[in-house]
Amino acid sequence: MQDQDQEFFFLIIIGGLLAFLLVGFVVTVLLLYQKRQHRQEQELTRLKEEYDQEVLKSQLEIQEATLKNIAQELHDNIGQILSVVKLSLSVLPVEKEHKAYEPLQHIREVLNKAVFDLADLTKSLHTDRIAQIGLVESVRFDLQTLKKTGLMNVQFDVEGEEYKLSGQKEVFIFRIFQELVNNILKHAKATQLNILLDYTASDNFILSVVDNGVGFSMQDKKDSKSPLNGVGLKSMMNRAKLIGATIVFDSYPGKGTSVKMELPITTSAQTIDE
Length: 274
Prior knowledge:
five-stranded mixed β-sheet, two-stranded antiparallel ribbon
């Protein structure tokens, strides 16, 4: 009888161990499945982000190619037409005493301005020019054009020694700068614009754009259901993200807007003099 009890007790222990092992096996399988599923989800997320980045990169490259083509067409076609008209007017034998002299002089002045403005526009649109003269000179050139309009006071500062950023980063930064200035001209009603290119930090490059305009509410931009509202902001965010930069907007109604873009620098950055 005692042997039967011991055998029964032994079977209970064995059964318990088997049940424990079975539960452990099931739990282990479930954990491994969840871990594998999590890895798959992470991989899918990574692939989606890479795909989105490639799509965005392609879109921006197409935009740059389009701007380049437009600049070339403006220079080759419209620029040539204006030059021919300008030359034709310059050879007209009109004396000062003639009643058409003053209107003709005014037309010549307007035409000269159109030729110069067109040249400035094509230079600003052309991607190759940014690579040739660098980011600082590209920004300075655009700001000089803005200063000529007399719409606002412009302060441009460069801190540190300029270095060349790799790849298309300078082009994207320049387009972000252009979009910011364009938004200020269209919406801010500003009288003062401060631009800073900061090369002094050991680990990042900084673009700062500050105006004293009417400002805006970031929350209103986010809450707006209009597909057109914040398109410029989204474009700048996309460009910044594509080059690994962060861009922060600080704005309140009636208090102007401050924008700061920071780009981590790499060992591939080289000074312009090198």
